[in-house]
Write a structure and sequence with these properties.
Strand content: under 5%
CATH class of the largest domain: Mainly Alpha
Helix content: over 70%
Structural class: mainly alpha
Radius of gyration: 21 Å
Largest sheet: none
Shape: elongated
CATH architecture of the largest domain: Up-down Bundle
Number of domains: 2
Number of strands: 0
Number of helices: 13
Length: about 230
Amino acid sequence: MSTAVIETDAPAAAGGTGVNPWLIAILVALASFMEVLDTTIANVALPYIAGGMGVSEDEASWVVTTYLVANAIILTASSYLAKTFGRKPFFLISLGLFTLSSLLCGNAPNLNALLLFRILQGVGGGGMVPVAQSILADSFPPAKRGQAFALFGVAVVVAPVVGPTLGGWLSDNISWQWCFLVNVPVGVFAMAMIALVLREPKTWRSCWTAAWRMTGSARPSSSRSRSFALSHSC
């Protein structure tokens, strides 16, 4: 797709349904904030996790490591998965898995279960940040994308700073489980709102389908006409 086509479709993606693009920006930034927050929120809770589960602090440190490793692995595959399942479904699946695994982490009976749930949480969280940026790019016209990415940047930069403070306060005053359970109400709210307001753009596969229909032929000799149809259908 050409740059001109992307710029033409961007305002329609946000305004086609009458939804304020800033609402979409706030929602995806909130989801990304929770994902990045979990990279640091458990750091100061490790002594509490170790004491509560009867393990050493070295063993409890795997709670942080497993999340980061799973997060990094799924991050590299997020582009392919978003194209395969669709951007909105993939974002909602990732957010749903992140929220569900956060609930499971808060109710884990032992360290092995907690590590498994943290891996699932990392898998769910790893796909959200890159897709969130793609959603922002399509939701705003080019002139306002800088402001949208500034909001997103603030959320991503502030989250790891807030994480240790919030994690320490929750562990001291409530319990270490709430370092994970705090994600659940926010995740459910973000899922419900994003499912309502976010419009799925055309996928590359649907663009090719439209191009074939416009040309009316599947012969190799019509490649130039298909390219023209593809650029106008997407």
